[in-house]
Amino acid sequence: MSVQLGKVVSFILLERFGPLVERVGTYLFEYGTNPLFCIKKFTDLPIPKIKESLAILVKYQLVTFAPNKNDSVANYTLHPNKVLLHLRYPKYINMIKKKFGDEAEVILEEILQKSYWTASEVILHVYEKLKKDNKSNVTLPALRDNFVSLVTAKYLIRVPYNEADDKAVPSLVVQDHELHMAPPVDIMELSTNPQGGNYKDKDIYWTVNFDRFHQDMRDKILVNAFTQKFDENAGELVKLLLRQMYIRTEPWTDVSNPIPLLEIKDLVRKQANLKLLNSFFDQYVNVIEQDSSNLIRKSGEASGGSFQIFLKEAFTQFAWEIVEQCVLEKFDSKAARIFRLVKLKKYIDSDLIQQQAMIPAKEAKKLTFQLLEENFLQIQEIKKASTGTGPHKSFMLFHINLENVVRMLLELCYKTLYNIMSRRNHERTVNKRIIDKKQRVDTISISMRSQGATEEQLADIEDMITPPEKEILEKIDKMMKRLNTVELEVDDTIFLLQMYLVYQ
């Protein structure tokens, strides 16, 4: 189990749910699946507190439970990768805002905060919230339509329900056809009974389908890669290929079913903003086909030909590029040259590395063993056919195990995440007094402004913070923004590396 991942998971649980939940979650991370009495024995917490902590973790889908062999006791399992998803909440919200608008953004934000909700309750809650924010144009039918759009597009998914009440450990199930079935929301009932009540959908709960967001994030990586490497038209062509792939293929398959090229060409012809792509369609297809990422390949010649999308191949190439960039930044260009040489030859002797890398022998040997020490290279011992023992009866070949290197880089990313979060927490602790003062002044200012205070009165309130304190607050603000940006960028790298592992 990853030590660095454990530190990040513990930090997130502590920051978002408090010390008791963090203690229970950390135990499940370290010791794996366990029943309640084992958690009690090793955490030394009262049973009611453990139950409360487990209820919170189950509610936010961070822990799942299953009956033991005799179906009388529940075993609890923590899912560390789901804990990490809390760092991506701003990305999810931003994606929905761009795709569906502000109202859908607020709906998603509320469901993320509460983990699950009925459609009627969340629609009413968002309606009241937007009304308080003076957004007078919001209506219940519009919010209902936004909610249904999120369900139809599979960004929201139905929560499994208990199929039988007589079991000691509940078994939660949901039928496939129910996952994205539009909820029965009665607008008239919401209008006449806004305080809550016995709504038609009172037992139908909805939660966020993270898998759907990750599908969009994966597609965005592919589109951005070709946009940056070629131009926007190449990116649009990849976007259309992916869109048509979903019509005939499961989203997370390694290789798509054949996609007719004429079908893509017709879509391009119908879009007025893709005139250049329409004019040079065949050339763009050839360029993408010959690209080193191996994203698409021909699968037939009939009717203008068909193409298949090789997602596994593409993300393998992206993983290689990340690893090579890490070697370049961690060491230097000569080490990167040696790494690429080993990648090209697959298995190579140290003497050949010194000869073919065009680097002085002593320096090449030093860099090779540095890469070996940092786990970017591995050694394979090959024994000679002759009998006997000793070093002269075998020789060593250097090679790269990409999966091992990717897992090692993930560890480094987790360590970086932990350092970022620790630094941010340190800044808040050290500057707690001045940050609290700024929050009090802002609260007073907002209250006075709502009461119709004059500009002079508001200026007097702002003057409660001295110029030196304002300078310190500006530095803290810059530091926090920088740390947040780096955290999101590290998470982007983690996601790409995880995509490689998903397809292995």
TrEMBL record:
InterPro entries: POLR3C_WHD (IPR055207), RNA_pol_III_RPC82-rel_HTH (IPR013197), RNA_pol_III_Rpc82_C (IPR008806), RPC3 (IPR039748), WH-like_DNA-bd_sf (IPR036388). Residues 200-316 form the RNA polymerase III Rpc82 C -terminal domain. One of its GO terms (molecular function) is single-stranded DNA binding. It comes from the Eukaryota. Gene3D superfamilies: 6.10.140.1450, Winged helix-like DNA-binding domain superfamily/Winged helix DNA-binding domain. PANTHER family: DNA-DIRECTED RNA POLYMERASE III SUBUNIT RPC3, RNA POLYMERASE III DNA DIRECTED -RELATED. This is DNA-directed RNA polymerase III subunit RPC3. It comes from Callosobruchus maculatus.
